[in-house]
């Protein structure tokens, strides 16, 4: 059974184990930038504002354990195993003065990919965003991670107007990532989705997808689950 838990990270003296480097395997998409990026990610993962959903393997089904705040537990089924097979790191932040849920990491180990777990976790994130009256879910994907990009596009995420390539194409060429979003209300839609003629937008989106399909496969930079 796999169990999904949503909680804040605990300190070194706590009983909750944080994902290790092995569990957050980012070396391939970041390449030579990984050593410095790893330090940044380690700091991000222990920040007070970080929230998590952990998925653990127990037997042959899913159960959930949700902890939004310390001291408040909602357990649907007990889990005795301690094998981490996936997790989401997310935060409640302001982007362009709009409250959003920003997904910092989505990781699913290879043996658990292709079974709908990544999609399930993103649906949980979207539910959290809607229940919390957030305007959007936002995330960052490395350009090298074509599978992850296709995964999020399939979930109807779009390239945000705040993504470097949308702000300034020349700046976008220098950056190795894109910002994606899914909006839930009008203010977020007006700020994060590209403002252009619908016909032109459709053409531009098709070019993006075609470009992604032509590139070689890779692992994700910030969001590591590439499969639905």
UniProtKB/TrEMBL annotation:
It is found in: Cytoplasm; Nucleus. Belongs to the acetyltransferase family. NAA40 subfamily. Its EC number is 2.3.1.257. It is an enzyme of class 2 (transferase). Its main location: cytoplasm. This is N-alpha-acetyltransferase 40. Residues 40-199 form the N-acetyltransferase domain. Gene3D superfamilies: 3.40.630.30. Residues 1-29 are annotated as: Disordered. Pfam families: Acetyltransf_1. InterPro entries: Acyl_CoA_acyltransferase, GNAT_dom, NAA40.
